[in-house]
Design goal:
By secondary structure, the protein is an alpha/beta fold. It is built from 25 helices and 8 strands. Helices cover 59% and strands 9% of the residues.
Protein backbone atom coordinates (compact mmCIF):
# COMPACT_ATOMS: atom_id res chain seq x y z
CA UNK A 1 0.00 0.00 0.00
CA UNK A 2 1.42 3.37 -1.03
CA UNK A 3 1.95 5.96 1.65
CA UNK A 4 0.70 9.42 0.82
CA UNK A 5 3.26 11.75 -0.70
CA UNK A 6 2.75 14.40 1.95
CA UNK A 7 3.48 11.85 4.67
CA UNK A 8 6.64 10.70 2.87
CA UNK A 9 7.82 14.29 2.49
CA UNK A 10 7.38 14.90 6.20
CA UNK A 11 9.34 11.75 7.02
CA UNK A 12 12.12 12.80 4.62
CA UNK A 13 12.33 16.27 6.18
CA UNK A 14 12.80 14.69 9.62
CA UNK A 15 15.43 12.29 8.27
CA UNK A 16 17.35 15.20 6.74
CA UNK A 17 17.12 17.14 9.99
CA UNK A 18 18.62 14.17 11.87
CA UNK A 19 21.39 13.82 9.27
CA UNK A 20 22.29 17.49 9.52
CA UNK A 21 22.45 17.25 13.32
CA UNK A 22 24.70 14.16 13.19
CA UNK A 23 27.01 15.15 10.32
CA UNK A 24 27.18 18.93 10.68
CA UNK A 25 26.26 21.57 8.11
CA UNK A 26 29.38 21.18 5.92
CA UNK A 27 29.15 17.41 5.42
CA UNK A 28 25.37 17.47 5.05
CA UNK A 29 25.51 20.24 2.43
CA UNK A 30 28.17 18.40 0.44
CA UNK A 31 26.40 15.04 0.24
CA UNK A 32 22.69 15.49 0.95
CA UNK A 33 21.66 19.03 -0.04
CA UNK A 34 20.87 17.85 -3.60
CA UNK A 35 19.15 14.57 -2.66
CA UNK A 36 15.41 14.50 -3.42
CA UNK A 37 12.69 12.11 -2.32
CA UNK A 38 11.05 10.51 -5.36
CA UNK A 39 8.84 7.81 -3.83
CA UNK A 40 8.13 5.96 -0.59
CA UNK A 41 6.15 2.74 -1.05
CA UNK A 42 5.87 -0.58 0.77
CA UNK A 43 9.15 -0.52 2.63
CA UNK A 44 11.26 0.99 -0.16
CA UNK A 45 12.43 4.60 -0.25
CA UNK A 46 13.52 5.93 -3.64
CA UNK A 47 15.83 8.95 -3.63
CA UNK A 48 17.37 10.78 -6.57
CA UNK A 49 20.73 12.56 -6.90
CA UNK A 50 22.22 14.69 -9.72
CA UNK A 51 25.40 12.63 -10.39
CA UNK A 52 26.55 9.01 -10.45
CA UNK A 53 29.48 9.90 -8.20
CA UNK A 54 27.12 11.19 -5.52
CA UNK A 55 24.98 8.05 -5.83
CA UNK A 56 27.99 5.76 -5.37
CA UNK A 57 29.39 7.77 -2.47
CA UNK A 58 26.11 7.76 -0.53
CA UNK A 59 25.59 4.05 -1.20
CA UNK A 60 29.11 3.27 0.04
CA UNK A 61 29.16 5.49 3.11
CA UNK A 62 25.63 6.33 4.24
CA UNK A 63 23.24 3.62 3.06
CA UNK A 64 22.92 1.83 6.42
CA UNK A 65 22.59 5.13 8.26
CA UNK A 66 19.80 6.24 5.93
CA UNK A 67 17.92 2.97 6.47
CA UNK A 68 18.31 3.34 10.23
CA UNK A 69 16.94 6.88 10.25
CA UNK A 70 14.05 5.93 7.97
CA UNK A 71 13.18 3.00 10.27
CA UNK A 72 12.71 5.52 13.06
CA UNK A 73 10.01 7.13 10.93
CA UNK A 74 8.52 3.97 9.38
CA UNK A 75 9.37 0.58 10.84
CA UNK A 76 8.66 -1.25 7.59
CA UNK A 77 11.41 0.53 5.61
CA UNK A 78 14.07 -2.01 4.63
CA UNK A 79 15.60 -0.65 1.41
CA UNK A 80 16.96 2.61 0.01
CA UNK A 81 17.13 2.95 -3.78
CA UNK A 82 19.17 5.75 -5.36
CA UNK A 83 18.71 6.94 -8.92
CA UNK A 84 20.50 9.59 -10.95
CA UNK A 85 18.09 12.30 -12.04
CA UNK A 86 19.90 12.96 -15.31
CA UNK A 87 19.62 9.26 -16.07
CA UNK A 88 15.80 9.17 -15.74
CA UNK A 89 14.42 9.15 -19.29
CA UNK A 90 10.97 8.48 -20.78
CA UNK A 91 10.53 4.88 -21.85
CA UNK A 92 11.27 4.49 -25.58
CA UNK A 93 8.65 3.04 -27.86
CA UNK A 94 9.48 -0.08 -29.85
CA UNK A 95 9.75 2.01 -33.00
CA UNK A 96 12.25 4.31 -31.39
CA UNK A 97 14.36 1.57 -29.80
CA UNK A 98 17.92 1.39 -31.20
CA UNK A 99 18.62 -1.47 -33.60
CA UNK A 100 21.47 -3.90 -32.84
CA UNK A 101 23.71 -2.56 -35.60
CA UNK A 102 23.10 0.98 -34.34
CA UNK A 103 24.06 -0.07 -30.81
CA UNK A 104 27.30 -1.57 -32.12
CA UNK A 105 28.04 1.62 -34.04
CA UNK A 106 27.36 3.69 -30.92
CA UNK A 107 29.73 1.51 -28.88
CA UNK A 108 32.47 1.96 -31.49
CA UNK A 109 31.85 5.72 -31.54
CA UNK A 110 32.09 5.82 -27.74
CA UNK A 111 35.38 3.92 -27.82
CA UNK A 112 36.80 6.36 -30.37
CA UNK A 113 35.56 9.29 -28.30
CA UNK A 114 37.34 7.92 -25.23
CA UNK A 115 40.59 7.99 -27.18
CA UNK A 116 40.08 11.72 -27.63
CA UNK A 117 39.09 12.33 -24.00
CA UNK A 118 42.19 14.37 -23.12
CA UNK A 119 40.77 17.41 -24.88
CA UNK A 120 37.35 16.97 -23.28
CA UNK A 121 38.90 16.51 -19.85
CA UNK A 122 40.73 19.79 -20.21
CA UNK A 123 37.54 21.58 -21.20
CA UNK A 124 35.44 20.06 -18.41
CA UNK A 125 37.45 18.10 -15.83
CA UNK A 126 34.50 17.66 -13.47
CA UNK A 127 32.40 15.99 -16.16
CA UNK A 128 35.37 13.85 -17.19
CA UNK A 129 35.92 12.66 -13.62
CA UNK A 130 32.24 11.93 -13.15
CA UNK A 131 32.13 10.05 -16.45
CA UNK A 132 35.11 7.94 -15.41
CA UNK A 133 33.49 7.11 -12.08
CA UNK A 134 30.19 6.30 -13.80
CA UNK A 135 31.95 4.01 -16.28
CA UNK A 136 33.65 2.19 -13.45
CA UNK A 137 30.27 1.67 -11.83
CA UNK A 138 29.15 -0.09 -15.03
CA UNK A 139 32.22 -2.34 -14.98
CA UNK A 140 34.09 -0.59 -17.81
CA UNK A 141 37.87 -0.43 -17.22
CA UNK A 142 39.26 3.09 -16.88
CA UNK A 143 42.80 4.12 -16.02
CA UNK A 144 43.58 7.42 -14.33
CA UNK A 145 46.71 8.30 -16.29
CA UNK A 146 49.30 10.88 -15.34
CA UNK A 147 48.11 13.05 -18.21
CA UNK A 148 44.52 12.88 -16.91
CA UNK A 149 45.57 13.95 -13.43
CA UNK A 150 47.74 16.82 -14.62
CA UNK A 151 44.97 18.36 -16.71
CA UNK A 152 43.47 19.89 -13.59
CA UNK A 153 40.53 22.29 -13.68
CA UNK A 154 40.23 24.81 -16.48
CA UNK A 155 41.50 28.31 -15.69
CA UNK A 156 39.43 31.40 -16.40
CA UNK A 157 41.56 33.67 -18.63
CA UNK A 158 40.04 36.74 -16.93
CA UNK A 159 41.69 35.83 -13.63
CA UNK A 160 45.14 37.39 -13.87
CA UNK A 161 47.24 39.61 -11.64
CA UNK A 162 46.63 42.52 -14.03
CA UNK A 163 42.86 42.29 -13.56
CA UNK A 164 43.05 41.98 -9.76
CA UNK A 165 42.26 45.27 -8.01
CA UNK A 166 44.36 45.86 -4.90
CA UNK A 167 43.16 47.44 -1.67
CA UNK A 168 43.83 47.39 2.06
CA UNK A 169 41.67 44.29 2.57
CA UNK A 170 43.59 42.10 0.09
CA UNK A 171 47.06 43.65 -0.14
CA UNK A 172 48.82 40.99 1.96
CA UNK A 173 47.16 38.12 0.07
CA UNK A 174 48.13 39.68 -3.26
CA UNK A 175 51.74 40.20 -2.16
CA UNK A 176 52.01 36.58 -0.97
CA UNK A 177 50.49 35.28 -4.22
CA UNK A 178 52.92 37.34 -6.33
CA UNK A 179 55.83 36.05 -4.26
CA UNK A 180 54.79 32.44 -4.88
CA UNK A 181 54.22 33.04 -8.58
CA UNK A 182 57.64 34.67 -8.99
CA UNK A 183 59.30 31.26 -8.85
CA UNK A 184 61.84 32.07 -6.17
CA UNK A 185 62.63 30.05 -3.07
CA UNK A 186 59.65 28.37 -1.41
CA UNK A 187 58.99 30.68 1.54
CA UNK A 188 55.31 30.35 2.44
CA UNK A 189 54.34 26.68 2.39
CA UNK A 190 51.52 26.07 2.37
CA UNK A 191 50.02 29.43 1.54
CA UNK A 192 46.47 29.37 2.89
CA UNK A 193 43.98 31.99 1.67
CA UNK A 194 40.58 32.31 3.30
CA UNK A 195 37.68 34.63 2.53
CA UNK A 196 33.94 34.69 2.09
CA UNK A 197 32.42 34.17 -1.34
CA UNK A 198 33.31 36.72 -4.00
CA UNK A 199 36.28 38.41 -2.31
CA UNK A 200 38.99 37.24 -4.73
CA UNK A 201 40.64 34.09 -3.37
CA UNK A 202 39.86 32.04 -6.51
CA UNK A 203 41.00 34.96 -8.68
CA UNK A 204 44.39 34.97 -6.93
CA UNK A 205 44.71 31.17 -7.05
CA UNK A 206 44.11 31.07 -10.80
CA UNK A 207 46.38 34.07 -11.41
CA UNK A 208 49.22 32.20 -9.70
CA UNK A 209 48.45 29.00 -11.62
CA UNK A 210 48.39 30.80 -14.97
CA UNK A 211 51.70 32.57 -14.39
CA UNK A 212 53.52 29.50 -13.08
CA UNK A 213 52.09 27.30 -15.84
CA UNK A 214 53.46 29.77 -18.38
CA UNK A 215 56.96 29.25 -16.98
CA UNK A 216 56.91 25.57 -17.90
CA UNK A 217 56.66 24.16 -14.38
CA UNK A 218 54.13 21.42 -13.57
CA UNK A 219 51.01 23.00 -12.10
CA UNK A 220 47.81 21.35 -10.87
CA UNK A 221 44.79 23.48 -9.95
CA UNK A 222 41.82 21.55 -8.52
CA UNK A 223 38.84 22.18 -6.32
CA UNK A 224 38.51 19.90 -3.30
CA UNK A 225 35.57 18.16 -5.00
CA UNK A 226 37.70 17.53 -8.12
CA UNK A 227 40.37 16.00 -5.90
CA UNK A 228 37.79 13.63 -4.38
CA UNK A 229 36.44 12.65 -7.80
CA UNK A 230 39.93 11.88 -9.12
CA UNK A 231 40.98 9.94 -6.02
CA UNK A 232 37.82 7.81 -5.90
CA UNK A 233 38.11 7.09 -9.64
CA UNK A 234 41.74 6.03 -9.18
CA UNK A 235 40.80 3.72 -6.31
CA UNK A 236 38.12 2.04 -8.40
CA UNK A 237 40.51 1.67 -11.34
CA UNK A 238 43.16 0.19 -9.01
CA UNK A 239 45.57 2.91 -10.12
CA UNK A 240 45.78 4.79 -6.83
CA UNK A 241 49.57 4.38 -6.57
CA UNK A 242 50.12 5.95 -9.99
CA UNK A 243 47.69 8.71 -9.04
CA UNK A 244 49.63 9.47 -5.84
CA UNK A 245 53.02 9.39 -7.58
CA UNK A 246 51.77 11.79 -10.24
CA UNK A 247 50.41 14.23 -7.66
CA UNK A 248 53.71 14.25 -5.81
CA UNK A 249 55.71 14.98 -8.96
CA UNK A 250 54.18 18.40 -9.60
CA UNK A 251 55.82 21.72 -8.75
CA UNK A 252 52.75 23.65 -7.63
CA UNK A 253 49.50 22.21 -6.21
CA UNK A 254 46.51 24.51 -5.76
CA UNK A 255 43.39 23.25 -3.98
CA UNK A 256 40.34 25.54 -3.92
CA UNK A 257 37.22 25.30 -1.72
CA UNK A 258 38.98 23.23 0.93
CA UNK A 259 35.86 23.28 3.11
CA UNK A 260 34.31 20.66 0.80
CA UNK A 261 37.02 18.02 1.32
CA UNK A 262 35.26 15.19 3.15
CA UNK A 263 35.84 11.53 3.82
CA UNK A 264 38.49 10.02 6.11
CA UNK A 265 40.40 8.18 3.39
CA UNK A 266 40.40 11.16 1.02
CA UNK A 267 41.63 13.48 3.77
CA UNK A 268 44.37 11.04 4.75
CA UNK A 269 45.60 10.87 1.17
CA UNK A 270 45.49 14.65 0.86
CA UNK A 271 47.53 14.96 4.06
CA UNK A 272 50.14 12.49 2.76
CA UNK A 273 50.34 14.40 -0.53
CA UNK A 274 50.64 17.69 1.32
CA UNK A 275 53.47 16.38 3.49
CA UNK A 276 55.33 14.91 0.51
CA UNK A 277 55.15 18.12 -1.50
CA UNK A 278 56.14 20.38 1.38
CA UNK A 279 58.99 18.11 2.48
CA UNK A 280 60.17 18.08 -1.15
CA UNK A 281 60.19 21.91 -1.33
CA UNK A 282 57.22 21.93 -3.73
CA UNK A 283 54.74 24.79 -3.36
CA UNK A 284 51.16 24.27 -2.13
CA UNK A 285 48.37 26.87 -2.08
CA UNK A 286 45.01 26.17 -0.43
CA UNK A 287 41.89 28.35 -0.32
CA UNK A 288 38.72 28.03 1.75
CA UNK A 289 35.88 30.14 3.06
CA UNK A 290 37.34 30.26 6.58
CA UNK A 291 40.57 29.75 8.53
CA UNK A 292 41.94 26.18 9.06
CA UNK A 293 41.02 26.21 12.76
CA UNK A 294 37.36 26.76 11.82
CA UNK A 295 37.12 23.82 9.39
CA UNK A 296 35.56 21.38 11.85
CA UNK A 297 35.03 18.69 9.20
CA UNK A 298 38.79 18.36 8.55
CA UNK A 299 41.04 15.84 10.25
CA UNK A 300 43.17 17.39 13.02
CA UNK A 301 46.41 16.51 11.20
CA UNK A 302 45.23 18.26 8.04
CA UNK A 303 44.21 21.37 9.99
CA UNK A 304 47.54 21.42 11.81
CA UNK A 305 49.54 21.11 8.57
CA UNK A 306 47.53 23.87 6.88
CA UNK A 307 47.94 26.16 9.89
CA UNK A 308 51.72 25.65 9.80
CA UNK A 309 52.20 27.82 6.73
CA UNK A 310 51.18 31.40 6.00
CA UNK A 311 47.46 31.91 6.70
CA UNK A 312 46.08 35.09 5.11
CA UNK A 313 42.51 36.34 5.25
CA UNK A 314 40.90 38.53 2.60
CA UNK A 315 38.35 40.83 4.15
CA UNK A 316 35.35 42.68 2.76
CA UNK A 317 36.43 45.60 0.54
CA UNK A 318 36.18 49.10 1.94
CA UNK A 319 34.56 51.94 0.01
CA UNK A 320 37.79 53.00 -1.73
CA UNK A 321 38.45 49.47 -3.03
CA UNK A 322 34.84 48.99 -4.13
CA UNK A 323 35.04 52.27 -6.05
CA UNK A 324 38.32 51.22 -7.71
CA UNK A 325 36.83 47.85 -8.69
CA UNK A 326 33.90 49.58 -10.38
CA UNK A 327 36.17 52.06 -12.18
CA UNK A 328 38.35 49.21 -13.45
CA UNK A 329 35.38 47.15 -14.62
CA UNK A 330 33.82 50.14 -16.41
CA UNK A 331 37.09 50.66 -18.30
CA UNK A 332 37.06 46.99 -19.30
CA UNK A 333 33.42 47.21 -20.40
CA UNK A 334 34.22 50.14 -22.70
CA UNK A 335 36.43 47.85 -24.78
CA UNK A 336 33.25 46.03 -25.78
CA UNK A 337 30.78 48.92 -25.51
CA UNK A 338 32.71 52.10 -26.42
CA UNK A 339 29.76 54.40 -25.65
CA UNK A 340 29.14 52.92 -22.18
CA UNK A 341 29.32 55.61 -19.49
CA UNK A 342 28.48 55.59 -15.79
CA UNK A 343 28.37 59.00 -14.03
CA UNK A 344 30.56 59.33 -10.96
CA UNK A 345 27.58 59.85 -8.60
CA UNK A 346 26.12 56.54 -9.77
CA UNK A 347 29.45 54.75 -9.21
CA UNK A 348 29.57 56.27 -5.72
CA UNK A 349 26.01 55.09 -5.08
CA UNK A 350 26.77 51.51 -6.15
CA UNK A 351 30.06 51.39 -4.21
CA UNK A 352 28.33 52.70 -1.11
CA UNK A 353 25.37 50.31 -1.15
CA UNK A 354 26.76 47.08 -2.69
CA UNK A 355 29.30 46.35 -0.01
CA UNK A 356 29.47 42.59 0.42
CA UNK A 357 31.87 41.44 -2.33
CA UNK A 358 33.57 42.21 -5.62
CA UNK A 359 31.38 39.60 -7.30
CA UNK A 360 28.23 41.49 -6.30
CA UNK A 361 29.78 44.69 -7.62
CA UNK A 362 30.38 43.05 -11.00
CA UNK A 363 26.82 41.73 -10.96
CA UNK A 364 25.50 45.24 -10.31
CA UNK A 365 27.58 46.68 -13.14
CA UNK A 366 26.43 43.93 -15.52
CA UNK A 367 22.84 44.90 -14.80
CA UNK A 368 23.58 48.51 -15.66
CA UNK A 369 25.30 47.45 -18.89
CA UNK A 370 22.33 45.27 -19.86
CA UNK A 371 19.82 48.03 -19.15
CA UNK A 372 21.87 50.58 -21.07
CA UNK A 373 22.43 48.34 -24.11
CA UNK A 374 18.89 46.91 -24.30
CA UNK A 375 17.00 50.18 -23.80
CA UNK A 376 19.53 52.66 -25.23
CA UNK A 377 18.79 54.82 -22.18
CA UNK A 378 21.61 56.62 -20.34
CA UNK A 379 22.49 55.45 -16.85
CA UNK A 380 21.11 57.78 -14.21
CA UNK A 381 20.82 57.69 -10.44
CA UNK A 382 17.11 56.91 -10.65
CA UNK A 383 17.66 54.10 -13.14
CA UNK A 384 20.43 52.59 -10.97
CA UNK A 385 18.22 52.67 -7.88
CA UNK A 386 15.40 50.94 -9.75
CA UNK A 387 17.61 48.33 -11.44
CA UNK A 388 19.61 47.40 -8.35
CA UNK A 389 16.95 47.66 -5.65
CA UNK A 390 16.76 43.91 -4.90
CA UNK A 391 20.56 43.52 -4.91
CA UNK A 392 20.98 46.45 -2.55
CA UNK A 393 18.25 45.15 -0.26
CA UNK A 394 19.84 41.70 -0.09
CA UNK A 395 23.26 43.18 0.68
CA UNK A 396 22.04 45.13 3.69
CA UNK A 397 23.62 43.74 6.84
CA UNK A 398 21.48 41.51 9.06
CA UNK A 399 20.43 43.22 12.27
CA UNK A 400 22.21 41.57 15.15
CA UNK A 401 20.15 40.77 18.24
CA UNK A 402 21.48 40.70 21.78
CA UNK A 403 20.06 37.17 22.05
CA UNK A 404 22.31 36.11 19.14
CA UNK A 405 25.35 37.52 20.94
CA UNK A 406 24.48 35.79 24.20
CA UNK A 407 23.90 32.47 22.44
CA UNK A 408 27.21 32.54 20.52
CA UNK A 409 29.28 33.71 23.52
CA UNK A 410 27.69 31.11 25.80
CA UNK A 411 28.47 28.31 23.39
CA UNK A 412 32.01 29.54 22.66
CA UNK A 413 32.99 29.79 26.35
CA UNK A 414 30.93 26.79 27.49
CA UNK A 415 28.79 28.74 29.93
CA UNK A 416 25.02 28.94 30.06
CA UNK A 417 22.96 31.98 29.20
CA UNK A 418 21.70 31.91 32.77
CA UNK A 419 25.31 32.29 33.95
CA UNK A 420 25.74 35.40 31.78
CA UNK A 421 22.65 36.96 33.33
CA UNK A 422 23.42 35.86 36.89
CA UNK A 423 25.24 37.69 39.67
CA UNK A 424 28.05 35.12 39.81
CA UNK A 425 31.52 36.70 39.89
CA UNK A 426 33.84 33.79 39.02
CA UNK A 427 36.41 34.64 36.35
CA UNK A 428 35.16 31.93 33.99
CA UNK A 429 31.82 33.75 33.86
CA UNK A 430 32.81 37.41 34.33
CA UNK A 431 35.06 37.56 31.26
CA UNK A 432 32.52 36.01 28.83
CA UNK A 433 29.85 38.32 30.29
CA UNK A 434 32.04 41.37 29.70
CA UNK A 435 32.81 40.24 26.16
CA UNK A 436 29.11 39.73 25.46
CA UNK A 437 28.31 43.23 26.77
CA UNK A 438 31.11 44.70 24.67
CA UNK A 439 29.83 42.96 21.53
CA UNK A 440 26.29 44.14 22.27
CA UNK A 441 27.58 47.71 22.41
CA UNK A 442 29.62 47.60 19.18
CA UNK A 443 27.30 45.36 17.11
CA UNK A 444 23.85 46.67 18.02
CA UNK A 445 22.30 50.15 18.28
CA UNK A 446 21.12 49.44 21.84
CA UNK A 447 21.89 51.95 24.59
CA UNK A 448 23.95 51.12 27.67
CA UNK A 449 20.90 51.07 29.99
CA UNK A 450 19.04 48.74 27.60
CA UNK A 451 22.03 46.40 27.35
CA UNK A 452 22.23 46.39 31.15
CA UNK A 453 18.57 45.38 31.40
CA UNK A 454 19.16 42.51 28.95
CA UNK A 455 22.04 41.25 31.11
CA UNK A 456 20.18 40.65 34.36
CA UNK A 457 19.00 44.24 35.00
CA UNK A 458 22.50 45.58 35.51
CA UNK A 459 23.26 49.28 35.82
CA UNK A 460 24.55 51.08 32.71
CA UNK A 461 27.82 51.85 34.53
CA UNK A 462 28.48 48.10 34.76
CA UNK A 463 28.09 47.83 31.01
CA UNK A 464 30.36 50.82 30.44
CA UNK A 465 33.02 49.29 32.67
CA UNK A 466 32.81 46.01 30.72
CA UNK A 467 33.13 47.79 27.37
CA UNK A 468 36.16 49.79 28.48
CA UNK A 469 37.79 46.74 30.05
CA UNK A 470 37.50 44.68 26.85
CA UNK A 471 38.71 47.62 24.72
CA UNK A 472 41.86 47.83 26.88
CA UNK A 473 42.46 44.08 26.73
CA UNK A 474 42.00 43.98 22.95
CA UNK A 475 44.67 46.68 22.53
CA UNK A 476 47.14 44.75 24.70
CA UNK A 477 46.34 41.15 23.74
CA UNK A 478 46.42 40.23 20.00
CA UNK A 479 45.07 36.74 20.76
CA UNK A 480 41.98 38.19 22.42
CA UNK A 481 41.57 40.63 19.53
CA UNK A 482 41.50 37.69 17.10
CA UNK A 483 39.04 35.87 19.35
CA UNK A 484 36.71 38.90 19.36
CA UNK A 485 36.86 39.06 15.55
CA UNK A 486 36.03 35.35 15.36
CA UNK A 487 33.01 35.88 17.62
CA UNK A 488 31.85 38.76 15.43
CA UNK A 489 31.99 36.55 12.34
CA UNK A 490 30.13 33.78 14.13
CA UNK A 491 27.42 36.23 15.22
CA UNK A 492 27.13 37.82 11.75
CA UNK A 493 26.94 34.39 10.15
Amino acid sequence: MQIQETSGSEHWNRVKKSLRAELGDDVFSSWFARVDLEEHTDGTVRLSVPTRFLKQWIQSHYNERLIGLWKRECENVHKIELTVRSAIRPRQSAAAAPQPHMAATKKLTTTMANARSDTAAEANPVAAAQAATAALGRGEPQIETARDVLQGAALDPKYTFDSFVEGDSNALALAAARQVASGGAVTFNPLYLHASVGLGKTHLMQAVAAKVRGSGRKVLYLTAEHFMYRFVAALKAQSALAFKDTLRSIDLLLIDDMQFLHGKQVQQEFCHTLNALIDGARQVIVAADRAPSELDSLDDRVRSRLSGGLVVGIHEPDFALRRNILTTRVAQARKTYPSFEVPDPVLDYVARHVASSGRDLEGALNRLIAHNQLTAQPITQEMAELTLRDLIRSSEPRRVKIEDIQRVVSKHYNVSKADLLSARRTRTIVRPRQIAMYLAKVMTPRSLPEIGRRFGNRDHTTVLHAVRKIEELVQADPALAQEIELLKRMIDG
